[in-house]
Structure formats: C-alpha cells, structure tokens
Amino acid sequence: MTAAVLTRSEERLWGHPKGLYFLAMTEAWERFSFYGMRTLLVLYMVQELLLPGRIDNVAGMAGYRSVVEGIFGELSTQAFASQTFGLYAGFVYFTPLFGGLLADRWLGAKRVVMIGIALMTLGHFAMAFDYSFLIALLLLVLGSGCLKGNIAAQVGHLYERHEEQLCSKGYAIFSTGINIGATIGPLFCGLLAQLYGWHFGFGAAGVMMLIAAVVYFAGLKYFAEDRAAAPAGEVLPPLTRIEWRMIALVVFVLVLTMFQSFAYEQMFNVGLLWVSERVSLSIGGFAVPVPWFGAEDSFASVMILPVLLGLWAWQARRGKEPGDFGKLATGAAIMAVSAGMLALGSLLAGEGKVSILFPLIAYFLSGVAFMYQWPTALALVSRRAPAKINALMMAGAYLTLFAVGVISGFLARFYEPMGDTAFWTMHAAFSATGAIAIVLIAGPIRRRMDMLDG
Hints:
Keywords: Cell membrane, Membrane, Transmembrane, Transmembrane helix, Transport. Its main location: membrane. It comes from Qipengyuania marisflavi. One of its GO terms (molecular function) is peptide transmembrane transporter activity. The chain is mainly alpha-helical and 454 residues long. Helix content is 76%, strand content 2%. The strands form 2 sheets. The protein has a two-stranded antiparallel sheet. A two-stranded antiparallel ribbon has the order 3-4. The longest helix has 34 residues, at 420-453.
C-alpha cells in the first residue's frame, strides 16, 4: 500500500478518502461559475454587447469577427453570437487533451489544476468588462483545459487498484458536486444579471472561482501524490488489426450520438434566445430569469438519476434492461421530443408568445435525455476501447463535443431565416434520425464488437 494513496482510517470520511470531498466541492464551485456564466453568454452578446456603440469597445473584436466570417461567411448579430458561443463551447472540450498532456509529461495534475483555477478566475472577472470580453473567453477555454480532466483524474488517484467499486462510488459523489453546481450557478447568476445587470452575474461567477480555489488549496494535504510522468520516449505496442476494427466501431457509434448532441447543445445557444423572445415568462408578477431554464436541465439530470437506476434494476430483474444501444436510442428519442416541444410551442404561438410550460417540459426532457446518452456513451468507450489506448479514447470521446459545439454554432445561423418552428423541427429530426440509426445498427454492431472482444 503506497503512501501516495490516502487509506489510513483517520484520513477517510464515510468510507472514502477525505480528498474526495474537497475535490467534489472544488468542482461544484467551478461548475457553479462555469454554468452560471454559460447561460448568460449568448443572451449577453445578443441583447447588449454586440449592439452598435458597444461592440466597438471590445478589444480585438474587429479582427476576430473578420476571421470568423472569413471561415463561416457573413453573419447576422444573432448568428455571430451563436457561432461565438459554439466555438467557446467546443474548445472547452478540446483543450483538456493538452491539459492532460501537460500534467502527465511535465507539471503533474495538482500544479495544472491550480493553473486552471487561476486562469478561470481571471477569465470570469474579465467578463465583467466589455474591453476584455475576448480575452476572458480565451482565459476560460485555457483554464478549463487545465482543470477539467486533471481534477477528475485526481479522484481516481485516491483509491487503490483493488477498490474498483468504491472508486466508482467516489466518482458518483464527484459527479453529484458537478450537477449541484450546474444547477445552482444559473439560478444565482441569472437572477443577479436580471436584477443588477450582466456584469454582476459574471462577477458572481468570478467570486465562485475564488471559493473553488480556497477549497482546493485547503484540501491539498488530503490529495494523492501526482503520478510519475511517463517516459518521454515510451512507445506503446502497435495496435492489432482487431483493435483497429474495434476503434472504428466505437468511433462510428460516437458519431451517431452527435445527432442528439446537436439538439442538446442548441438548447443552451439558440434555445435561451428563443425563451427570451418567444415565451411568456411572467408568473404572478415575477419575470422568470431566462438562465434558470439551463439550471432546470441540470436539476432534471440530478432528479432523474435515482429513477433511472431503479427502472433499470427493475428491468434487469425481468431480463429486459436495455443495453448500451437501447439507452442511446432512448436518449436520442427523448431529445427529439424535447426539441419538438419548442417547435410545437412556436407553431401554436404564431406571432405571439408561448406558455412557459413548453420550455419547462423541453428543458426537463433534455436533462433526462442527457442521462440516457452521455454516461452510456462513456461507459461503452471505457468497456470496448482497446486497453492500450483506453484513456486516450475516453479523452477522444470529448472531442465529439468539440465538433458538436462548433457545428451547432454553425447551424444556429439558420434560426432567423428559417423561423423558429422549422428550426426546432429540424433539430428534432436530427435527434430522431440518430435514434433510428442506432436502432438499425445496434444488432450488427453489438455482435461484431462481441466477436472482436471474444
């Protein structure tokens, strides 16, 4: 038993290493700030920052817009804001590859996480000023890259190899911290932005990152020592033909899950603009802050988990629990209904405003769809990817979210010319297509994977 792993009874709390709770609380505060800012971003750009007289205050905006439009073509204010949101949302899932490399090869996870916290804190505070808006986004992308994968890896470092089941429960506790932060952040930052202005909401996200820093530093003595860096010249054994075939099958399945993810990501991009413009938000004289719908998605993910675990256990006892492909298809179908609710609301509202019930149902369903899809996709990659590159394949799964962010930003340009009913119908069709495709290929792909594993 190594000294690097905290296993002495006095270093454990409720059966888990104390470091787990500090990591979970750090991630809760970080996600609080991240999702609080994320649900404000596209609204802030469309409703204030990109308006004439304000956009000129942003350092580097002219050059940035020239580059973006050089790639994606001329964009309206809404389309430019949505594409910027898509690029930000995408690169947040691209940079962790480099953060992991930095930790594994040179600095270690602890130092890189501390760098990430510092960068994200600066980024959130920089969002409070027009001038530094683009600088803020860059800092947040780089900071997230340093923090996201490495803090999750530190959870696993707390446990011995033989503690597989306990480690899984530890990750469940860690994920609970993520979902709590993702739920509360949009509620708090959205309310502050509505009552006192956008910059108060962004500033609150910065304060939350300071709290995350305090919690992380307080827990340093309870964390495992960083793993030794892999030798720079280490060469893995070459992949066999069978392993390459398995990789191709896994990548193919991940590509199919992107159809659902296009609609899911759009809920936080054009979806929030749609809520702001097309929904009657007044309840008893109180105007519901638009970012609260982003919180509802996370809240639904938290609330539905025990229900799904109970449902799947009940189905398993009867030999009818859906496998990975069944769950992926179910998630895509639910997401199709979620986007369809926005299309139906748009159709029924005509030129007026739609009842708040439509987005309430839609964002709850999107949270349920996420719990069917993303954990299942990660589990499939973890089980099926070759052992030689299993960790790399897990990181590669997040690259699908990078592609989804960029592509969903591109698709957002069609919101204004198509109209909201057709736009959301298109996204419902994307998800439905993904569900049908997964159902059609499930049997042959599963049999092929089983044969390759055998």
